[in-house]
Amino acid sequence: MLVIAFFLAYSINTQLSIVLAFAIPLLTVGVALIVTTAVKRFSIVQQKIDAINNTLQENLIGMRVVKSFVRQDFEIAKFKKSNDELTAAGIRAVTIVILTMPMMMLVMNGATLAVVWFGGQMVYAGTMGAGELMSFISYIFMILFSVMMLSMIVVMSARAQASGRRVLEVLEAELDIVDRPQTAAPSRQAGRVEFRQVAFKYDLSGSGENVLCDISFTAEPGQVVGVVGGTGTGKTTLVNLIPRLYDVSAGAVLVDGVDVRDYPLETLRDQIGVVLQQNTLFSGTIRENLLWGSWMPRRRNSRPPVATPRRMSSSWGCRWL
Questions:
Q1: How far separated are the first and last CA of the chain, in Å rounded?
Q2: What angle do CA 139, 144, 149 make, to 5 degrees?
Q3: In CATH, which superfamily holds the domain spanning 189-272?
Q4: pTM, two decimal places
Q5: Is the model's pLDDT at 84 over the cut of 90?
Q6: Would 38 disulfide with which of 68, 158, 232, 315, CB 3.0-4.6 Å?
């Protein structure tokens, strides 16, 4: 609509089209500046959304800890702070976006005023008919409408671009845990797990505090080992070190006398199974549920069993097989 309306307006009067030739680039530059600023501000909004989601997640996961240590007022204040920061960031982002419509109206109505002024003089001089002037003004309104619709898409794309960058960051992220050169699977796999003075911290820079410190024990094949502790004491973190979901900061985790970092990741994780506390099974037989574990790596050309998710009603403990 924008292109055709401009072409028809140009065909009516070339001199008046010069007004549009100035107005449209000016409008384009203004929208581009607004969108560039909006993308940065919407990126900050996404970060604030992350912060408030993290606060909610911490409260839900550590609900009993909050109650035990009577930290309700502290958590409420913490949530209020995150919520206020999100509100302020959202207002700053929307404030720049709402300038799009006034700017477009100012430019296009200014162009219309200029066309009426110069076109009126042409009509008075007899070089242009009144009907042609009205047609020209109608095409200006068509251009205005098309630019308004386009601006709506551009404003929506500003927030989509901020979110899309975050998605690409995840998709393009390089793996921190990879196979070492010349790793080979041992011939004997008995299932002996040993922790040797293991320490672990989540901060990769090395400046954070250890979540686990000087952990040493041995789980013999067939032996059941219970890891007991309160919420947030590192039980899950300790177990996740065995399949190398994380790498130790110090010490070593050994399976059958071999450091887990010397195993190929596929071989190591293929030999470890976990039953979570909250389990999701699929409708069907036990055999069909077990086939899901072997279908992906071994049956690429076959169809998986058709099933629908179903949550177990019972609560199982975590046990490594």
A1: 66
A2: 125
A3: P-loop containing nucleotide triphosphate hydrolases (3.40.50.300)
A4: 0.51
A5: yes
A6: 158
What's the CATH architecture for 2-171? Up-down Bundle (1.20)
Q: Hey, what are 54's tokens?
A: 């993290």
Q: Distance (Å, rounded) from C-alpha 17 to C-alpha 3?
A: 13
Q: Which residue has the higher pLDDT, 254 or 267?
A: 254
pLDDT digits (tens, 9 = 90+) for 171-225: 888 877 777 776 666 666 778 888 999 988 887 666 678 888 888 989 888 888 8
Tokens linked to 302? 């076959």
Q: Could you read off the pLDDT of 126-183 as tens digits, one per residue?
A: 888 888 888 888 888 888 778 778 777 877 777 787 778 888 888 888 877 777 776 6
CB 96 within 8 A of CB 41: yes
- The structural domains of the chain, with segments of one domain joined by +, span 2-171, 189-272, 273-321
Q: Report d(CA 67, CA 316) in Å as an integer.
A: 25
Residues 164, 167, 168, 169, CA torsion sign: positive
